[in-house]
Amino acid sequence: GGFDQRTGQPIPGFRGEDQLLVYDESYGQKSTGTNYWGVELLVDRDGTILRAAGGDSPIPEGGLVISGNGRWSRPLTEVDPFGVRVTLDREHKEVRLETSPALLRAAAEKAVCRLEKTVRQAEEKLLDIDYTAVQALLGDIREKSAALAGFGDEDVEAPAREVGRLAVRGQLMCLPTLRVEKRAVWYRASETCEKEVEETVRYVKSAGLTAIYLESWYEGFTIWPSAIPGVRMLPGLKGFDVLEAFVRIGHRMGIEIHAWVETFMAGIIPPGKDNTPENVAIYAPLIADHPHWALTSRQGSRASYIPFDRIHMYFMNPMEEEARDLVSRIYQEMVSRYDLDGVNFDYVRFPQPNQPGDGSLDDFGFCDNIVAAYREQYGTDPYEITEQHPQWRQWCHFRAELINTFVYRTADELHTLRPGLSISVAIWANFEEAATVKYQESMDWVTKGYIDEVFTMSYYMDLRPVLEETHETRRRAEDQAFSSTGIAAFMDVPRDLFLDMLLRIRDENTAGAAIFALGSFREKKMEEWLRPGLYREDAAASPDRVPQAVPALLEDMLRRIRTLYVPKAGGTEDNYGAPSIQRLLNQLTDSSFDDAGCARLEEEAQRQEKAAESLPVSLVARQLLSRDWQRIRYLLRVYRNRLAALSRGNRHA
């Protein structure tokens, strides 16, 4: 099972689908070598679970790694390591998780020591946490742990596990919060009345999130009653205008509402359903109504089959003017009718190529008009062009240009209708694969000024690819658009790894994170992970809302100087430059955020960043203050570039 049956080549780490493997030092490699689509538990030589991770984990010296894929991912994610010892029964090929009163007592003692160490490290790093609350909890845990000596073996489990539960909460409370941060969530609505919408938005607010990216146009349906002929509203909503309700109620509760739209994706035949004309009429009505709109593959297929999900996906031909016009009209109607905060483009690309059993290429874009246009312009029949052909890159770019021109047009139209509207895009952040498999050139749109914010879709069960895509997208976008990272709630990502993703995303100076999607977020009760620490305080502003974000950042700097740096690191407010920050805050007006005002603010932030290097305070405090000024400068640079892009007017026209 560790080999690809089509190619005969080993799967990374020899871990195939639905396999549970154990790696130890006899494997002969320092790490498992697995891919990013599983869960791994690292176990030391004593059988203690050190942590959960994604792929290619290092094998602890004298220990082992338990690695699961597919149906084994969730069970490994749900393992509670408290008071557990891992043993192997090699004869029966079993992994055993054992506990005992002695192990529970030892785990409680370790949990107290670990939390004490975490609090000390937080103080040394001047992390923005509630030290009073953490110390009170730590005192309570110490008492409960000491009291375990008075329990007999038959009664010790419940109080010991209570110590473990409180220690986990203490660790969460030691994670720092940010007051200016994107905390978005994608969501497919199913509400059919105002009361249900109110409950959903209230939950989002209570979880510390800031924005809902609401799926508004998908699979050929709208979630509002459209006046455009031939456009259907999603039947399950029973005529209820759920978009209007989310916008109105969301704004009342301080939640941004962005319309998440599946641009050219026109329908999905779900798992278990055959790809028949009857099902196309039900699940992809635009394709049933307009068969010539369907994007066609090299081998004549009108649907992209995704084996992993067992679904057939229909896309519209992006060269078909009637289809382009319809999608454009839908977006204009939505933006004109509702006070949206933004529009989030998704599926602005071609579909995944099919995978024929003979291994031949079955990419998309072989509609008659696309083939004829390429042949006329370049003199070559696209059917002759495969990946080894000298025109392969050109043929990929030709298809991508069909997407590019639609983005230019639509972004211009929407910005003209609503100049303050945020236009964002969810992108394929493997840029090489995006350009040559999906025919998506997202950085073209960014560098030309059409996009306000870009979201990676970094849906992995490992930290490394998330950080790589975050970093690379931020680098490519430079200061032309805000960038945020999309991470997966729908996958079996272990809690601590998920939290680490959010923490490390912050280090890249991005706008923040978007979580896919709200249903999984609620199912896993992620608010219980996030509210005690990373999202402890409500965000005062989203970074892309610079006129609100910059004052909020300055106010937060003052708060931390007064309530954290001076009490923990000593000195006076003057030592930390508080008077300069206060003066700058007092001088802010509406005109501070036009282009000239932003330029002056950026210059002042640069001066303050330089001055922070020589303040008579600790190195840690100087670094934190410098980072604050760097972030303010970054937001101002992007904002100025967005102002310049909008001032150029309707470029498409």
Describe this structure in words.
The protein has 653 residues and is an alpha/beta fold. It is 44% helix and 15% strand. The protein contains 21 helices and 19 strands. It has helices at 73-77, 101-125, 131-147, 157-173, 194-206, 242-252, 277-283, 285-289, 321-337, 368-378, 392-417, 431-438, 442-447, 463-477, 495-507, 518-523, 527-530, 546-569, 578-587, 595-612, 619-647; strands at 20-24, 38-43, 49-53, 64-69, 85-89, 94-98, 182-187, 211-218, 221-222, 232-233, 256-262, 265-269, 304-306, 311-315, 342-346, 422-427, 453-457, 482-488, 512-516. α9 (321-337) runs parallel beside α11 (392-417) and α20 (595-612) packs antiparallel against α21. The model has no long low-confidence stretch (mean pLDDT 95).
TL;DR of this structure?
The protein is α/β, with parallel strands linked by helices and 653 residues long. The protein has helices spanning 73-77, 101-125, 131-147, 157-173, 194-206, 242-252, 277-283, 285-289, 321-337, 368-378, 392-417, 431-438, 442-447, 463-477, 495-507, 518-523, 527-530, 546-569, 578-587, 595-612, 619-647, and strands at 20-24, 38-43, 49-53, 64-69, 85-89, 94-98, 182-187, 211-218, 221-222, 232-233, 256-262, 265-269, 304-306, 311-315, 342-346, 422-427, 453-457, 482-488, 512-516.
